[in-house]
Amino acid sequence: MAGPLPHWRSGTVGSGGEDVYFEATGDDGAPAVVLTHGAGGSHAVWYQQVPALAAAGYRVVTWDSRGFGRSSYRTGVHGPDAAAADLAAVMDELGIVEAHHVGQSMGGWWVTAFALAHPTRVRSLTLSNTVAGCWTDALREHFRRWAGDFAAGESRLGVHPAIGRDLVARDPAKAFLYQQLNTFHAPPMTEIVVALWRMRVEPEQLGALRVPVLVVTGADDGLFPPALVRAGLSRIDGARVVELPGAGHSPYFEWPDEYNAVLLDFLGPADRISSQ
């Protein structure tokens, strides 16, 4: 990273009885990109995106959904409404009026809930390897079968359902890192799955927001296969769908250079976008 290193800060903000952890990298006046992690993840999973986005001139915000990473889980309350309120609290604490929002898997549900609750605070939506509440019958049936197969599966070092097996073969240490990063969470996964299952969003609702929408999927995503995701989320008016070859459910982690290039191409140069 050439030139002066960007500013970095961390903190917590109270929201709904919880302490929500966040990190912000970059200048306060720069256009903001908020990265929202998936189930099992935390702010730390975005370590390959933060430097790239900051180098491009963005202010990058990562945060921990309640019960994940360093955010508390005292109330036992979780789900899209709580996540939308927590995200609003983080943005308020940082003085961010509006931002580009990127949601991975579970995070896609959370940023969608936020966008519907706070449409004026969203510049764009990037939905990565997620249903984002836009269920189809085919997606529901596939997910039901996948969850059953996963529950009956056997755990092995470096093998995780959210990454492709290609990563285990070419970089076993990185695959194991992903496995390790997914051990810092408190909410029972069954409760998370139920919350995701119950949230239903019509594509027309997202299209009505009139913000740019990018859908990213991986060619080898076994959790949400690209054909099913495309059939579900391409119904969002104006959505751009990009499928990354060789990637599983977490292309931002598996193939960061390719993922970052797609995301930055969608966002455009930061200096051409007015600050918040």
In short:
With 276 residues, the chain is α/β, with parallel strands linked by helices. It has helices at residues 50-55, 80-93, 106-117, 137-151, 165-170, 172-181, 189-198, 203-207, 226-233, 251-254, 256-267, and strands at residues 8-15, 18-25, 32-36, 59-63, 99-104, 122-128, 213-218, 240-244. Strand 1 and strand 2 (18-25) form a beta hairpin.
SSE inventory with pairings:
Layout (H helix, E strand, L loop, with lengths): L7 E8 L2 E8 L6 E5 L13 H6 L3 E5 L16 H14 L5 E6 L1 H12 L4 E7 L8 H15 L13 H6 L1 H10 L7 H10 L4 H5 L5 E6 L7 H8 L6 E5 L6 H4 L1 H12 L9
Parallel strand pairs: 3-4, 3-5, 5-6, 6-7, 7-8
Antiparallel strand pairs: 1-2, 2-4
Helix pairs in contact: 2-3
Can you offer a commentary on this structure?
- This protein has 276 residues and is α/β, with parallel strands linked by helices.
- It has a single domain (8-265), classed as Alpha/Beta hydrolase fold, catalytic domain (Rossmann fold, 3-Layer(aba) Sandwich).
- It is built from 11 helices and 8 strands.
- It has helices at residues 50-55, 80-93, 106-117, 137-151, 165-170, 172-181, 189-198, 203-207, 226-233, 251-254, 256-267, and strands at residues 8-15, 18-25, 32-36, 59-63, 99-104, 122-128, 213-218, 240-244.
- It has an 8-stranded mixed beta sheet, sandwiched between helices.
- Strand 3, helix 1 (50-55) and strand 4 (59-63) form a beta-alpha-beta unit.
- Helix 2 (80-93) packs across helix 3.
- It is globular, with a radius of gyration of 17 Å.
- The model is unreliable at 272-276 (pLDDT under 50).
